[in-house]
Structure prediction request, 121 residues.
Amino acid sequence: MKENVEKKDVLSIDQIKERYTNEWVLLVDLDISERTTVEGGVVVFNSKDRGEVHRSLSKFKGNKAIVFTGKIPEDLGILFTLCHDLPSEAAVDGLLGLNFLKGFDFKVEYSTGTLQFQKIL
Prediction:
């Protein structure tokens, strides 16, 4: 687990993949394309343990993204999201838009804190 406490330069995705091979990386100060693809950002936390990176999310304010820099196995599905802070009066933990959800059948498991998605063919 490595937390970057000082501000660093914005790195491109290629630079991040080169420096943090096969790791989960938390980015802030995002560089996002018009198609909402994360093209870079400031690395504030990295680890080979995905859970450590997810637990670190609350330490950082503003827009955030988590990127895995390795090869994703074909039998593993990963949901790519951007994280935004919501005002406390919103009374929700997060939002997924229907433009995303309409392509899947999904199951919410509150006991494990997971979502299961199956692509609608």
User: Anything to note?
Assistant: The CA atoms of residues 41 and 90 lie 27 Å apart. Residues 2-87 form one domain.
